[in-house]
Design brief:
GTP binding; alpha/beta; nucleotide-binding; single chain; 278 residues; G_AIG1; seven-stranded mixed β-sheet
Length: 278
Amino acid sequence: MGTPLPREWVGLQQFPAATQTKLFELLGKLKQKNVNTLTILVMGKGGVGKSSTINSLIGEQVVRVTAFQSEGLRPVMASRSWAGFTLNVIDTPGFVEAGYVNHQALQLIKGVDDLDKQIIRAITNSFGKEIWRKSLLVLTHAQLCPPDGLSYDVFSSKRSEGVLKAIRIGARIRKKDFDDSVIPVVLVENSGRCNKNDCDEKILLNGDAWIPNLVKAITSVATNKSQAIVVSKKLVDGSDASDKGKLWIPVILGLQWFVIKWIQGAIKKDIATGNGPI
């Protein structure tokens, strides 16, 4: 994967004014800390919305999204610049093609499937357990309705708790080792059905504007005190890449961060009742 020259971040100007104000404030705080470049490595299952989330974050269609088509075999990197700040996002192929698997809402809450556990182990084995200190858990399809008897916030909390528990077990993380480093969780909704507030911002069922929330969590992870992760160029470029040297995902002041894109399964439609498919 060659490193593209960053293009002007025109998508930033396409966000609603309220979202722009929040993003400019967050990016300004990074620049005040001399963080002028951030790179996101997006990982997770295939066909669960990684590319769509990247497009939503950048505000442009930088990664092609095609229904029912397998992801490419090579990562795709998009670079955008604004006022001296550069954002790089690397969209990786899914670790495993997830397909479309139906799960009941309560099953989603109760546990994480074997595919999730395999991916957790793959990430940990490839990058080491320290990568989880520089990670962000993103749950897509956040506009789905909770089962009867559960509030939206409780349902969302149960979803994230299941995956976070699987990460701790799959990565063999002892609680005392990560007491000072909690993996942030962000909910996103990429579909055209996403609700909007009076300021035209995309919002979740609890009223939160999710794009500013995602960027806020990203900046928090970017500036935490955990050490950078060294990534082999072979892991990013593919199995036939040159083994010469290592590739640091470049960030000023040695700051390094990753967004770990995670999802419990592709969801075809909202839940009408507790028995509805997701």
